[in-house]
Structures are given as C-alpha cells and as structure tokens.
Amino acid sequence: MNSDLIEDYKSFLNNGKTERECVSRITEWAERSGFKNLYKTEKLVPGDKVYAQKMGKAIALFTVGSGNIEDGMNILGAHIDSPRLDVKQNPVYERDFIVYLNTHYYGGIKKYQWVTIPLAIHGVVCKKDGTVVNVNVGENEDDPVFVISDILPHLAQKQMKESASDFISGESLDLIIGSEKPKKKDEEKDDKKDEKDKVNAKKVILNLLKEKYGIEEGDFGSAELEIVPAGKARDLGFDRSLILAYGQDDRSCAYTSARALIESVPGVKTNCCICVDKEEIGSVGATGMESHFFENIVAELIARLPSGYSELSLRRCLANSSMLSSDVNAAFDPMNADLFDKANASFLSGGIVFNKYTGSRGKSGASDANPEFIARLRKLLDDNTVKYQMAELGKVDQGGGGTIAYLAAKYGMNVLDAGVSVLSMHAPWEITSREDITQAFNAYKAFLTLA
C-alpha cells in the first residue's frame, strides 16, 4: 500500500471540496510537473505536456505521444462534482430571530442526512466591478460553522410517520448563519418608532459580510456558493484500513487519474486525463461531458501538432481512442445485503472495479463495454499485478446509476467504467478503502501504457 499516495489523496479531498478547488489544485500540480497551458502553446511535439481548463470547473491534461494521433489516445475520464447544497441567488432572510441562507440541493442526496451536521461554505462571489471573492468558511478550527436544524424527537410524532423522502423537504434545507435575541414588548414598540434605523440580525450578518469580504446583498445574484460538510478526511477503523471523507464520488477517481497522467512518461500513444463537472445532474452545461469541451480541446491539440488539423483526423482520433470512465461503484453493504447480487458485487479492498455496464434496470443509459476491450485490460492488469474485480451496482430491479461513459462512447471509442468501491455513496461522509485507492492508481498508470 502506498502511504504517501493516501496522505496526498486525503489532502486533495480536504482542499478540493468544489469543482473550482479541484481544478485549481490539479492545475498547480500539473504546472509544477512541467505542464504548459495549451492555449499559450503554439506548436506541440512528442513529449510535450499540456493542460486546458474550461471556466475553472473542468480540466483536460495531455502528454503528447510519438505516434500518429489518428491512431487514438488513452483517456482517463472522471468527474469532480459531488452532491451538495447550493446557495440560491436571493438567499439571506430572517425568520423569528434566526438568519438563514436559502439553498437548493444538487445531485442525488438523502435530504435527512444533511441536517444537524457541521457545514462549511465554499465558492466564489463575482462582483459587478469584475473582482472575484473566494469564500471558504467553516474549515479552519477558528472558523464558525453552519447547520440545518431538525425537530426534537419529543415533537416529531408526525414527522416520524412520513417517508424518508418527505419528512425533510428541500425548502427546509436552509442554513443557520446567525441570530438575535428576542425583544421585550416595550423594545418592540421603540423599534416601530425608528423602523428606518432598526438593526436586525439580517443586517448584522450582511454588515459582517461586507466588512470581511466586501460583499453586498445583491452580489449573491452572481455568486456560486456550495454548502459542504465541514471537516477533514479521516482514517476509519482501528486498523486505519478505510477512509471517511466528503466527495469521494468521484474525486477518488479524479485524483488517481490525474496523478497517474501527471506521473506518466510520454510514449507512443498520446495520453489524456479529463475531469469534468455536472455529472451528478446529467453531465449538462458548458463544463459537463455532454458539452463540446472535450471534442474542442482535442481539436486544439491536433491543430498544434506537426500534421495539422483536419476534421477527419479529429474523428479518427476519437473513434480509435480507448477510455476508462473513472467512476465509483457501490461497495457491498453487509447491513443491506438483500440489495446486492453478491456474486456480482464489488467489495471494499477488493481492488479497482470494472463495471461492464451501468444504467438502470434494463441497462437504460448504459454504454456496455465490448468484451474484446475488457479482455485486453484484464491481461494488462494481470501483467502489472494490479488487483481488480468485476461488478454491477446492485440487483437489477433495485435501480442503478450512470456515468460519463456513454457520452464518450458516442464517438465510437472503447469505454469501460473502472473505479473505486464506495460505501455510503452520496452521503455527506463516504467510505473508501486505502487499498482500493492504491490499486486504482496502479490500474490507471498501467492503462496509460496500453498500446
């Protein structure tokens, strides 16, 4: 097991709780390793290493091989967004002496898991004068944290009879960010006389935001603020064999993919790692895999090669490429064993997971990898003594899930889902195995040598 890799992985999770933070970290890491900005590079030759960002929330890394780009690339593709709560554009309000931030949940969450736990605010506020204010509150020991309240059990008889999807509504997932003391009757009368000069708790909070960050209330309209669990990644268990952290779906795969690419030695094939946004809500938008970001950036790469750009070269490159869709799989849960086909389940510490098809029920939304491609990968990993397992997400009729695999497969390339097993997936705190992180990294490194 690679202890240095694991400690660096935990540091990546601690400092990459949003897409922007992940892209920033990967960019810094790449530049230290000799990667150059593709857009600032006029010509490329074999051995060159370049990267390109999209809106600070998606990134692609390339090492240029000595072979013909039309013969395709080896691609590692992961996503760097995770389920969370987003702050609405008109979010600050006060209700009966408590000040809240209004939120909208992002991705597939169990809403009840987000109440009564310490939460932090990460993101950016973009002001009209063009300045961008970075926000990160709740992670340092001397920072305040935030929370969503819940009903005490003594008064929860009605709540406890409702379904899990209903007893916490989306509109009640609002963050407590301040409060004031209730006023006595005579104080209320005085306040009514001087309503214009009244300083309530909301105004106090807004004044604090203006003092610390220079943020006005209207600036929330052009902000991107994400609510995430406060706290660091931790070793789990007396034997420290597991990792407990936020955002391991899919940053466990993004980290190991990016590190494998950055540490790889340019060979015959051009290698690529792409980390995209918005997978948890359908890979939509300009920074999601469904956009033309990947296709466009490969075109930019080809245009800088000695052979020059042509539409046919781009199409041949994409069609002849091989990709591991680096995304996580559900780990077998002994406490809920009836949800899994045990013979086709993935287990913590069982190694990287190959998932031939994802989708749901009748393979809806799956890309269904070709067996010839899987056979080549099996041999490659066996030759490199990498531990792997073959699995599905759960029992056929229980549900399912998707990845970015089908969006890459549309180009005609070979694509297979390959990632880390996760227990408590999409919860604020997810569980992975140190062994699986190590094996995923080893698998991705081996894949980048595929001829």
Report on the architecture of this protein:
By secondary structure, the protein is of the alpha/beta class. It is built from 11 helices and 22 strands. The mean pLDDT is 93.
Give the helix/strand layout:
Elements: H1 3-15, H2 19-32, E1 36-37, E2 49-54, E3 58-63, E4 73-79, E5 84-95, E6 98-106, E7 119-126, E8 132-137, H3 157-161, E9 175-179, H4 185-193, H5 201-213, E10 223-229, E11 234-236, E12 242-245, H6 248-263, E13 270-276, H7 293-303, H8 311-319, E14 322-325, E15 329-330, E16 352-355, E17 359-360, H9 371-383, E18 388-390, E19 400-401, H10 405-409, E20 414-419, E21 421-422, E22 430-433, H11 434-447
Helix pairs in contact: 2-6, 6-11, 7-8
List keywords for this structure.
451 residues; 22 strands; six-stranded antiparallel sheet; alpha/beta
Helicity, as a percent range = 25-40%
Distance between the termini: 27 Å
Average residue-wise pLDDT = 93
Strand sequence of the main sheet, in spatial order? 1-2-3-13-4-14-20-16-18
Largest sheet: 9 strands, mixed
Radius of gyration using CA atoms only: 24 Å
Uncertain stretches of 5 or more adjacent residues: none
Strand share of the residues? 15-25%
Structural class: alpha/beta
Structure annotation, total helices: 11
Work out the number of β strands: 22
Task: Give the overall shape, derived from the CA principal axes.
Answer: globular
